[in-house]
Amino acid sequence: MKITNYLITFLSFLVQSFAFRENIALNKNTIQSSTYLFWSNYKPAYASYAVDGNREQFENDPVGGPFCASTLSNEANYWWAIDLGQEYTINMITLYNREDCCDYRLTDFQLFIYNPSINTWTYYDQQQGQLCFYQAVAAPSVLTIACNQLIRGRFIKLYKKHHYFPLRDALTLCEVEVFADQTPYKGLYCKQTNKQPILSLQKILTKTTRLRCAIFCRKTDSCLGFTMTVDGTCSLFQTSKYSAGSHVGSIYFERC
């Protein structure tokens, strides 16, 4: 009995703890449908700028930029892709949108994951990919998502069609972070004070504990995290965005 109580206490502590995560997208090989050339300093906005570890969210400056990957504007469709180098179970993907201008360009897009039999840029998307996530509206400044289902793969591709905007359309990604899950049905959840869940899964438990809520989230496809209220109500979410301040009336936990 004492051992069981100790185990529950220990696991509850882990649910509230912060843990280190490795961004497996960092400095990996990338390509995109086209590359924009800045007229101000004649520097191309390569696809690799989205995985260089720099989270600056403005597109360019005359000295240090570009900071974001960007395609040419007003094309029929746009895409950006990354080769992770090996097969992973994808846990979370975080996208950093522009903040200085044109955040609407990161809207109405799909994220696909591919696990091809031939791992080259020529053939990576020739077999059917699995849809990880669809974002209908403009993405917030920082968008973190869990895939719609548990997916293993090596290549990730973000695809969107052209939309008309007064300041021209394009695809711009300031940073993309990808996190793998070695134990997809186990693991920890970290308490978040600077994030806000934005896409409910309509999955709720009442009069429960944080540990049971974490297990519930782990067993639910597309669950990124959960909120807990003081009365023990657990609500699951698929996406989150960065926000200033703490949440009123609930505590938010996210995969870590």
UniProtKB/TrEMBL annotation:
Homotrimer. SMART domains: FTP. Keywords: Calcium, Disulfide bond, Lectin, Metal-binding, Signal. The keyword Metal-binding applies. It comes from the Eukaryota. One of its GO terms (biological process) is regulation of complement activation, lectin pathway. Residues 1-19 form the signal peptide. PANTHER family: F5_8 TYPE C DOMAIN-CONTAINING PROTEIN (PTHR45713:SF15), FTP DOMAIN-CONTAINING PROTEIN (PTHR45713). The keyword Signal applies. It holds the Pfam family F5_F8_type_C_2. Acts as a defensive agent. Recognizes blood group fucosylated oligosaccharides including A, B, H and Lewis B-type antigens. Does not recognize Lewis A antigen and has low affinity for monovalent haptens. GO terms for molecular function: fucose binding; metal ion binding. Belongs to the fucolectin family. This is Fucolectin tachylectin-4 pentraxin-1 domain-containing protein. Residues 21-186 form the Fucolectin tachylectin-4 pentraxin-1 domain.
